[in-house]
Amino acid sequence: MELEAATRRFQLWLRGLRSLRRDLRTARWADDPAQLAKLVAGYVSHFADYCAARAELDPVWTLAAPWASPVERGAAHWLAGWRPTTLVHLLYTESGNRFEAQLPDLLLGVRSGNLGDLSPAQLAQIDELQRRTVAQEDELSREMARVQEGHGAVGAGGELVDVGGLVGRVGAVLAGADALRLRTMKRAVEILEPAQAAELLVAAADMEIGFREFGLKYDGVGAGGS
User: Fold this and answer.
1) 20, 45, 114, 122: which has the fewest Cβ within 10 Å?
2) pTM, whole model, 2 decimals?
3) Residues 183, 96, 128, CA angle at the centre, nearest 5°?
4) Which residues lie below 8 Å from residue 54, measured CB to CB, with a gap of 6+?
5) CA 11, CA 18: separation in Å to the nearest integer?
């Protein structure tokens, strides 16, 4: 029953993500920073709500993610979700693509206000975000490795002596991973202007939804669809 509820929750979250992506795509072309900021905040809130809902699940279900396709679990998941530094890499990629496309205008002093127009101060903050996030990812990966090795939960004869404690530690690591994903998203949005943040979040939604659609198409997974 818990699996069915978790799958429905994922379906609803993904449906909401599609709606937010559509709204952001439409609004980012309008000259209304307040509206963009509201939609960006809604996107972050949508992800925060999903993280809170995941925290209520049995961590074994969260880690196994049976509602996801093998492609998603194998290629896109780090500790039951996307790697936080992926968002920073996506930011750099989108910024580079836009910078290259509008270089002639930039040389003439025409500013676009999009991700191709990041200021030196923004770039410095993004670099700091990346370095800090990498360090925190590494610590979570090390902790999960310790859990998987059974530290503190395996007796001298190789038997499990504290299954509940082991599952609790898995839950703590997964909660830490979700918290890092959310912190990284919030900090990236803080660094960027509303139009830039909208572009980044549209790209992030494209990535999330794209992996989902690819997995369903090529793995034939029907559970937890759009």
Assistant:
1) 45
2) 0.88
3) 35
4) 62, 80, 174, 178
5) 11
